[in-house]
What we know:
It is built from 5 helices and 7 strands. By secondary structure, the protein is of the alpha/beta class. It has a domain at 27-128: Rhodanese-like domain (Oxidized Rhodanese, domain 1, 3-Layer(aba) Sandwich), CATH 3.40.250.10. Strand 5 (83-87), helix 4 (95-105) and strand 6 (109-113) form a beta-alpha-beta unit. The longest helix is centred in the first third of the chain and has 14 residues, at 12-25. It starts with 11 loop residues before the first helix and ends in a 19-residue tail after the last strand.
Amino acid sequence: MSSVLRIPAATPQQSLDYLQAKLAYYTDAWDLAEDLAQRQPEVVVIDARAAAVYRAGHICGAISFPHREMDAVSTAQLDRSKVYVTYCDGIGCNGSTKAAWKLAALGFQVKELIGGLDFWKRDGHPLSWGDAPGEWPVAAPDAACGC
Length: 147
């Protein structure tokens, strides 16, 4: 018997439901870069790492908001009509998950960036340095996602 089919495949409807739910929780670097390049105002990117590592390089336009500082008081200024995309270093770091969890617990809509800053850099998307979020470059790289 097939090792793959030892556990039967999901029905098409089960797959649809699961995959739609999965996409509700995550975004990837290419989709986020496209939204940032188009200056989509309903998406806000949060770097959930410590401020010192944010200064050393972060996604253009991301705000520094370490997950350890998130609570009802510190998030009071955030706009609840926005969707917040959280990220950290990468798949070996759970800071983005902690940030997304805290924001969701406080009533905010959230998604996590798959692969964090590591995948962002691998895909060649622009970075900013210092304390300011930075501006998206006028002419973003012309690379196309192979997905």
